[in-house]
Amino acid sequence: MKPSTLSPMTNHLIDSLPHQDRVSFLADCEAVDLVFGEVLAEPGGRISHVYFPLNSFISLIANLSDGDRLEVAMVGSEGMFGMPLILGIEESPWHALVQGAGPALRIPAAVFGRHLEQSPALQALLKRYLYVLMHQLSRVAACTHFHQLEARLARWLLMTQDRAHSDQLHLTHEFLAMMLGVRRAGITLAAMALQTRRLIRYHRGDITVLDRAGLIEASCGCYASDRRIYRQVIIEGEVP
């Protein structure tokens, strides 16, 4: 990780704060460049910093005792990493892995805690974001059990595209298999099916989204549900 030299972008949570709260919070943030494959936290490890991705994104991965791994959430410019601190817990339940390199803002956990105590607006916003994350986690559990792999892959590609802000994605079959908790052969068949429908183009780990509308139609309803909850709770500020 290194200080960011890229053009400043935005994080929707920080942008949603009232002006004075936002100015005060940003004064204690540091701009950094997240590096692909960088580990920001391990399960049971202490959370030293809170991260607000700008044009980068982080996978939150559950590790099982037998070595299996499954991505349970993804954080980009719509969110943050460090949610347990909102509950007063300093340990991470997840393996936090940088999946999309790029700029982010970070703030030391202790300083973040002081802002949380002093800003009712920050508390209210992050409590709503925590609800959104809980919704995403529950959807992943149900989606993994009930929905077909092709639809789950379409959903995951859309989520990645949203956070990468690009139609061009670099994702190997091995990585996709780990993220979705399936065998590599299953990913191969699902990717081939989406490519046959001309929704994506896949070659040697490079994926191009050709038809986003078609990919949304091919995905399960979980993708639309995630976006609806985020819009309702974070953007419109309503509680379901």
TrEMBL record:
Residues 13-98 form the Cyclic nucleotide-binding domain. The keyword Transcription applies. The keyword Nucleotidyltransferase does not apply. InterPro entries: cNMP-bd_dom, cNMP-bd_dom_sf, Env_Response_Regulators, HTH_CRP, RmlC-like_jellyroll, WH-like_DNA-bd_sf, WH_DNA-bd_sf. It comes from the Bacteria. Keywords: DNA-binding, Transcription, Transcription regulation. Residues 147-213 form the HTH crp-type domain. Transmembrane segments: none annotated. This is Crp/Fnr family transcriptional regulator. It comes from Halomonas flagellata.
